[in-house]
Each structure stands twice: as structure tokens, then as C-alpha cells.
Input
Amino acid sequence: MGKITSHITNDPSVAAKAAAFIELLKPRLSFLVAFSSGFGYILASSGQLNWGNLLLLSLGGMLVSGASVSINQIIEVEYDALMNRTKNRPLPTGRITEKEAIIFSFLVAVLGLYILYLSTNPLTVALSFVSLLLYSFVYTPMKRVGPIAVFIGAIPGALPPLLGWVAATGVISFEAMIIFGIQFIWQFPHFWAIAWVGDEDYKKAGFKLLPNNGRKDLNTAINIMIYTLFLLPLGLLPTYFGVTGLNSAVIVTVCGCAFLAQTFSLMRDNTDKSALKIMFGSFLYLPIVQIAYMLDKI
Output
């Protein structure tokens, strides 16, 4: 029996299939969702931190997020095959069949929601389910309609910290809406910078994510700058309302100014290089800000 088990475990086809299923979940993105959920939970806990519930919340959030992006890839498989950045994903390459992906996504979603049901409260589960539906079945098809998709996608994208807060408190308070609002506004420069850099690839699939009729010009750069500018006052609201302290306010302001400064380069030269800097800046901004808030709270 031991030899049979060992043989199955070492079978390269089994290992490759397992790796493909994990890849389908986009673990790095799902981890960021879990991190943001944990951030909201810690911020709301006020010293009454339940580590078991925090771990289960993070796991459940990762699974629901993984199911959402898996469904996204099922719906967009023919478009993913057209783009350089996505053509090597498990579905376009045939490493996973569409039927396998559907069953897998369903099971992962059910497991994630069940874990949240056991460890949080009905409101958290309901909001998580709404997030999955919005991302998979509204945002995904709207990407080929127009830049309104970015607004729609920013809603489920901003829900993780709010979900963490609701998991800890059971209510959607104005503090929860503040941390939701910060992540909501952050997504516009984040998504638009990605769309600017990948514009040629996105056009192959018919995705329309950039504002200003999809043009990579000064007006689009100004849009990116304005939303980044909004992060400065928004970032101070947790301190103003006593959710966090002065130390995080200083860090958030410095990060916001550095992030904003990157948008001026894009307004000046309208180049992919400047957009790429904004994209990487957005990847740094959110976790640094959230860690600053958590450390200030703890």
C-alpha cells in the first residue's frame, strides 16, 4: 500500500495537475485578499484578537477569492488565449479542462463560504458571496463593454478589509466604510496603470479598461492623478476618527505623496515606463499603509 501511495504522489502528471489547479486560484492575489481581510479584522478587534478566527477568516477569504478568479478564467478562456500575459494559464494551455475548472471552482467557493460561516457571521458570508458574484459575473463580462468595469470591479476589490471588520464586529460601521473607501479609490490608479501598460495586449481580447475612450494620453493621466490625490485626505480619516494614531497618519501621508509624485511623470511624458512605475507604486502603497495602520492599532 505504501509503495502504491508513493508511486501516485511521485507521478509527474498528478503533480502537474495539482500545480495547475493551484495556479488557477492565483495564490498571490488570493493571499493579498486574505491579508486585507486580516487587516480589517485586526483593526476592528481592539485588543480582543481571536487568532483562530483570524486564520479561518483568512483561509475562507483566500478560497472565495480563488474561486472568483477561477470563474473569471473560465469565462475568459478564449480571450486569455489571445493575450501574451495570459496565454500560458492552465485553461488556454489545456492543462485543466473547462469541466474540471467549473467543478473545482464550485467546490472551492462552497468550502470558502462554509469556513466563513463557521468562523464569522451571516453578514460576512453574505457579503463574501456578493463579492464573488460581482467579480465573476458582472465585472468579468463588463471588461469588454467599457471602463465602467473598473468601477464595478473596484467594489469586490475593496470589500476584503470591510469583510474583516464585519467579521470582527458583525456590523458595517462608518469605520468599515472608511477602510473600504481607501481600498476602493486606490484601485483606480492601480487598474488604470495596469491597463495602460498592457493596453496592446488587452486590445487583442477587446477589453476596454482605460478611461477617456481608452486613449493613453494626458486626460487619462490626469484621471489617474486625481484618484491618487483623493488618497491623501482619505488616508487621514482613520486617524481623524480615532481608529488609528498619529504615527500611521505620517506614514500614510508620505506614501500618498510619493505615490502622487509618480503620476506627474505620466502626465508629463505619457509613457509606458511612467505607467509601470505607478503600477509598482500601487503594489507598494496598499500593504505599507495597511501595515502602518495595524502597527499603530496594536
User: Anything to note?
Assistant: The domain at 13-172 is CATH 1.10.357.140 (Tetracycline Repressor; domain 2). Residues 161 and 266 are 29 Å apart (CA to CA). The chain has two domains: 13-172, 174-298. Residues 1-10 have pLDDT under 50 and may be disordered.
